[in-house]
Amino acid sequence: MLSWLTITATASQDHRPMAQDSPIPDDPDTPRDGVLLDRLLLVMRRLRHSYDRHARDLGLTLSRARALATLARHDGATQAELAQHLAIEAPTLKRQIDALVADGFVERRADPHDARKTALMLTARGRDSAIIDFTNRLRRDLLEGVDPADQAQATAVLERIAQNIERIDRP
């Protein structure tokens, strides 16, 4: 359900260094309904910038790492199936998969059960423990000091926002 959040983070191709972010004002006249969303967007920009900076040596970006991590859980999925798991459009995923194939993380193979389909498979580099260790360390470090109960509450709030987005976007 949180896939829209990652899509928001991965949709931007802006890799410029971030300017100093201004603090969210504590002015009682400031509409509070926008503060959470402003803070969320700020956190996503910072996360993408930090991840891209640290992952560069591994040949990954946040978008590619997300596709790779999801494929690790669904190795052998078709591009359409993986796009569905990621909740993104197939053309967006195609560009990511093309880059992951070119960089030696993923390979395309004929589906042994259906000759019309192509399965996506992780290569040895795609399964490299350095990548897995990096991702696990980043997740652990990002949530350091955040109480599990606070994580659960934040997750519930974000899921509700995602549901609201889906409701608003329905024709």
What's a quick, concise take on this entry?
With about 170 residues, this protein is mainly α.
Tell me what you see in this structure.
The protein is mainly alpha-helical and 171 residues long. The protein has 7 helices and 2 strands; from the N terminus they run αααααββαα. The protein has a two-stranded antiparallel ribbon with strand order 1-2. Helix 1 (3-11) packs across helix 2, helix 3 packs across helix 5 and helix 4 (79-86) crosses helix 5 (90-102). The longest helix is centred in the last third of the chain and has 22 residues, at 148-169. Mean pLDDT is 81; it is low at 1-23.
Shape from CA axes?
Answer: globular
Annotation, overall tally of beta strands: 2
Question: What is the share of helical residues?
Answer: 55-70%
Question: What structural class do helix, strand and pairing data support?
Answer: mainly alpha
| Secondary structure tally, helices | 7
Kindly state the mean pLDDT as a whole number? Answer: 81
Biggest beta-sheet profile: 2 strands, antiparallel
Characteristic terms for this protein:
7 helices, disordered N terminus, globular, mainly alpha, 171 residues, single chain, 58% helix
Summarize the helices and strands and which ones pair or pack:
Elements: H1 3-11, H2 35-55, H3 62-73, H4 79-86, H5 90-102, E1 106-110, E2 118-122, H6 129-142, H7 148-169
Antiparallel strand pairs: 1-2
